[in-house]
Each structure stands twice: as C-alpha cells, then as structure tokens.
Amino acid sequence: MADLTTIEGQASYGIGFQMGQQLASNPFDGLAIDGVVKGLQDAFGGAESAVDNDTLGAAFSEIHKRMEAEKAAQFETVIAEANAFLAKNAERPEVTVTDSGLQYEVIHSGEGEKPTAQSTVRVDYHGTLLNGDVFDSSYDRGQPAEFPVGGVIKGWTEALQLMNVGDKWRLTIPHDLAYGEQGAGGAIKPYSTLVFDVELHAILG
C-alpha cells in the first residue's frame, strides 16, 4: 500500500488518479484496470512487453472500431437526418457536389486569383447547423478572419482552393469533411453537417 503521508507518495498517487480520470472519461467495454497496472509496472521496470507489437496494434485497432461503431449508433438519428438533407440539397440545380461530397452554391462570383493550400487568406463567414442555429460568424463579430488554407477543416480547405477572390459561396459540409465523429466544443455535436456562407476577400500570402 502506498504511503500517502509523504510528498512522494502523494505525488505518485496524484499521477495515478489523473490517469484513472482520463481512462474513465473515455473507457471501452472490458477495460481491465489490472491490465493497465501490469502494463505500467512492466514499462516502468524496463521489462519486455507481455504482448507483442503486432498483437497490440490489432487489439487497439479492434477496440477503436468498436468504440466508433458504438458512437455512430448513438447518433443514428443525426446521421440519417444529415444524409437526407445532403441528398435533397444535392438535387438543387444551383448546387455542385464534388468527389469528396462537399456541396457548394455560388452566391456571388469574383474575378480574383485562387488560393493554394499554402496560402493565407482573409475571409468573412457565417456558420450554422442544419437547424439554423449559428455557432460562429465573423459577420456578427464585425471582423474578417485570417488563416492558412491548409489549417482548417477539410471542407474549407477544398472549397477555398476552388474559389476566386471576390467569390461568396454557401458550403454544405458533411461531417467527415468537418469535425467528424468528435464534434467541436459544445455547439457542434459529433457527426454534424455544417453550412457556411463564405466570402473570400483576399490572399495574404
């Protein structure tokens, strides 16, 4: 039993407690704490792993697949609603669908240059969920945003390289080109399809 009356014992316990909290925040079915402890002891003691790397890799991959399947099952309604919206939106003649599944509609056409994946751009944007709730808007803040084309979600990176300076487009971005199965913050839930009005003002470099 650890001596929790000493500074060393208290710090050691704190490390273990924090690791336990991290594990508890995203556990998988069948997680074995005694296995975790065994792995810690072996690694810290410099022992050989009791499970070879190939077997570990296969186990991690299988657990990841199970956890993703469980999460997808929890959001079946969200996924179904998004797929129905995307299918209906794609039927509109003014909407273009790219090979990746990104959908865009040209609101206003500009005549400037197109940025590359290495460019930094200045844009205004207005982002909503499918129900119309606004989660972010540079228009509302009254200040355009500047960022690297290659440093944003996949749907934005793809769309910006298709746009000319002066263009304003409406993007409908499926979850796999947005924030995926993780979501972002409290507003954007996992598997969320997002709608953005994006206006490309300038290429900064």
UniProtKB/TrEMBL annotation:
<protein>
    <recommendedName>
        <fullName>Peptidyl-prolyl cis-trans isomerase</fullName>
        <ecNumber>5.2.1.8</ecNumber>
    </recommendedName>
</protein>
<dbReference type="InterPro" id="IPR046357">
    <property type="entry name" value="PPIase_dom_sf"/>
</dbReference>
<dbReference type="InterPro" id="IPR001179">
    <property type="entry name" value="PPIase_FKBP_dom"/>
</dbReference>
<dbReference type="InterPro" id="IPR000774">
    <property type="entry name" value="PPIase_FKBP_N"/>
</dbReference>
<dbReference type="Pfam" id="PF01346">
    <property type="entry name" value="FKBP_N"/>
</dbReference>
<dbReference type="GO" id="GO:0006457">
    <property type="term" value="P:protein folding"/>
</dbReference>
<dbReference type="GO" id="GO:0003755">
    <property type="term" value="F:peptidyl-prolyl cis-trans isomerase activity"/>
</dbReference>
<feature type="domain" description="PPIase FKBP-type">
    <location>
        <begin position="118"/>
        <end position="204"/>
    </location>
</feature>
<keyword id="KW-0413">Isomerase</keyword>
<dbReference type="Pfam" id="PF00254">
    <property type="entry name" value="FKBP_C"/>
</dbReference>
<comment type="similarity">
    <text>Belongs to the FKBP-type PPIase family.</text>
</comment>
<keyword id="KW-0697">Rotamase</keyword>
<dbReference type="InterPro" id="IPR036944">
    <property type="entry name" value="PPIase_FKBP_N_sf"/>
</dbReference>
